[in-house]
């Protein structure tokens, strides 16, 4: 309920708010798209979560209801991807735009939301797949791409945005944060597509041809091919951890060494952010 309903709605609202504060979107169109997406997300996600009811022994009829509604969850996610691409174009078109870095995180969040929650969620949600894949590495792939991809990147982007607002423009250096952005994106893609999903597909195959129990047995994980695929996690996971170390070090450095002084008149930049909470439309 949290990740597919409430938090998906929150993500649309917070992205709308940020884009208005960056002057990339008018308040009115942000409001319209937030309302539309709230309807879609709530309408599909709240009922769609019933694809999890299997675990708590709810009656059979929840399976088809859960499948249909969570398949519809792809719709708002397509809009989110579409919006992310539009936002990217807006950013590249407006030359003097200074918040490129936080903006890259927002676009990444939209893209991973589509790939991780939309495409991979959709795939494991197909009844024939879902019946055999519960708790397998296909779920692990979906979980990592959706959780870190959609929500992780958004939260980290918000941190980058607030940091940039609170540091003098001439002292701002986004190079470390940019490096961590790419370490994370490449790392997550390697983790999910080179190691986790291939294990998941092998597991699904064993589920189909042998049994669900065989797919989750220790014997499956001890197969040489599966063991090699687990080792193939090493490069991607290392990049993810490296990205986290670089980001954490840079946030600490900026927070303690580069913070704007309270009486600095350039703090007026914050007025940009305040504009969105002011009373006037546009
Ligand atoms: C950003 C949004 C999402 C996040 C963060 C997310 C995260 C997760 C996580 C952590 C799990 C594992 C839970 C467990 O093992 O009990 C899970 C399972 C699942 N998710 Fe998502 N999810 C998202 C959106 C979606 C969407 C949109 C769909 C369908 C289109 C979907 C379909 C599923 C299914 C079918 C399972 C169950 C797999 C199983 O039984 O092993 N998810 N999700
Ligand atoms: C180097 C980084 C990471 C490593 C090595 C790692 C490793 C793992 C492992 C081994 C599992 C258990 C899989 C199983 O069921 O057998 C797992 C599950 C999970 N991880 Fe990660 N993880 C990493 C990063 C992350 C990040 C950044 C997030 C989200 C912000 C995340 C979210 C999850 C979730 C939601 C599950 C549960 C999936 C499920 O229920 O099937 N992980 N992770």
Topology readout:
Elements lengths: L1 H20 L5 H22 L13 H11 L1 H20 L6 H26 L1 H7 L3 H29 L9 H35 L2 H4 L2 H4 L2 H8 L1 H25 L12 H6 L7
Helix pairs in contact: 1-2, 1-7, 2-3, 4-5, 5-7, 5-8, 7-8, 8-11, 8-12
The structure holds protoporphyrin IX containing FE (2 copies).
Q: Could you explain the architecture of this structure?
A:
This protein has a single domain (2-275), classed as Cytochrome c oxidase-like, subunit I domain (Cytochrome C Oxidase, Chain A, Up-down Bundle). It has 282 residues and is mainly α. 77% of the residues lie in helices and 0% in strands. The longest helix is centred in the C-terminal third of the chain and has 35 residues, at 175-209. The site of one protoporphyrin IX containing FE has 10 residues, from α7 and α12. One protoporphyrin IX containing FE binds at residues 139-140, 143-144, 147-148, 152, 237, 240-241.
Describe the structure concisely.
Helix content is 77%, strand content 0%. It has 13 helices and no strands.
Total count of domains: 1
Give the mean pLDDT. 85
Instruction: Note poorly predicted spans.
Output: 274-282
What is the straight-line distance between the termini? Answer: 34 Å
Going by helix content, strand content and strand pairing, the class is mainly alpha
Bound molecules: protoporphyrin IX containing FE
DSSP strand (E) fraction?
under 5%
Determine the number of helices (DSSP H or I, runs of at least 4 residues).
13
């Amino acid at each position: 309920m949290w990740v597919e309903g409430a938090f998906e709605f929150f993500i649309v609202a917070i992205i709308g708010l940020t884009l208005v504060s960056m002057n990339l979107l008018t308040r009115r169109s942000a409001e319209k798209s937030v309302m539309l997406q709230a309807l879609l997300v709530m309408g599909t996600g709240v009922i769609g979560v019933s694809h999890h009811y299997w675990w708590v022994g709810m009656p059979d009829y929840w399976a088809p209801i859960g499948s249909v509604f969570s398949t519809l969850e792809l719709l708002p996610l397509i809009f989110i991807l579409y919006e992310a691409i539009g936002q990217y174009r807006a950013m590249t078109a407006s030359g003097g735009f200074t918040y490129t870095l936080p903006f890259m995180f927002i676009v990444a969040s939209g893209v991973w939301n589509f790939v991780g929650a939309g495409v991979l969620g959709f795939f494991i949600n197909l009844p024939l797949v879902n019946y055999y894949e519960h708790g397998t590495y296909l779920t692990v792939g979906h979980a990592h791409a959706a959780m870190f991809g959609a929500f992780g990147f958004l939260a980290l982007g918000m941190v980058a945005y607030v940091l940039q607002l609170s540091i003098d423009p001439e002292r701002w250096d986004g190079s470390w944060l940019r490096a961590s952005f790419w370490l994370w994106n490449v790392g997550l893609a390697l983790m999910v597509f080179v190691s986790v999903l291939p294990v998941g597909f092998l597991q699904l195959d064993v589920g189909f041809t042998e049994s669900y129990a065989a797919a989750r047995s220790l014997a499956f994980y001890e197969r040489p091919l599966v063991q090699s695929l687990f080792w193939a996690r090493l490069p991607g996971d290392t990049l993810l951890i490296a990205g986290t170390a670089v980001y954490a070090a840079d946030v600490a450095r900026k927070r303690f060494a580069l913070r704007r002084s309270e009486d600095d008149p350039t703090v007026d930049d914050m007025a940009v952010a305040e504009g969105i909470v002011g009373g006037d439309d546009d």
